[in-house]
Amino acid sequence: MAEDYELIDNETHHQYEFHVDKYIPKIEYIKSKNGEIYLTHTEVPIALEGKGIGSQLVEKVLKDIEKQELRLVPLCPFVAGYLQKHPDWKRIVMRGINIQS
């Protein structure tokens, strides 16, 4: 089981991130002026792969998006795959967006 990492919203770099030792797993985003957030790219350093860090990152990002009442547009395949496995999160996806696996 992965440790519980603190989610950081790095608004300067438009990304959510964890700080894990010297590594920074991240999800890049674009926020629109009318309340949408586009998750464009997830990156977990190879040294950290297979530890559940990517999934924990997505989960915490989704919670933060819900807290901010933003509408999610999942452009990143990793995030879309996570939503396929956890369909209850589709509640925060923008209407009309179809999630392909």
Question: Which labels suit this protein?
Answer:
101 residues; alpha+beta; Aminopeptidase; five-stranded mixed beta sheet; 5 strands; globular
Mean model confidence by pLDDT:
94
| C-alpha termini separation | 25 Å
CATH class identity: Alpha Beta
- CATH homology group: Gcn5-related N-acetyltransferase (GNAT)
Describe the structure.
There is one protein chain. The chain has 101 residues and is an alpha+beta fold. The protein has a single domain (8-92), classed as Gcn5-related N-acetyltransferase (GNAT) (Aminopeptidase, 3-Layer(aba) Sandwich), CATH 3.40.630. It has helices at 53-67, 77-85, and strands at residues 8-10, 15-17, 26-31, 36-43, 71-74. A 5-stranded mixed beta sheet has the order 1-2-3-4-5. Strand 2 and strand 3 form a beta hairpin. The mean pLDDT is 94.
Quick synopsis:
By secondary structure, the chain is an alpha+beta fold. It has two helices and five strands; from the N terminus they run ββββαβα.
Draw up the topology in text.
Elements (H helix, E strand, L loop, with lengths): L7 E3 L4 E3 L8 E6 L4 E8 L9 H15 L3 E4 L2 H9 L16
Parallel strand pairs: 4-5
Antiparallel strand pairs: 1-2, 2-3, 3-4
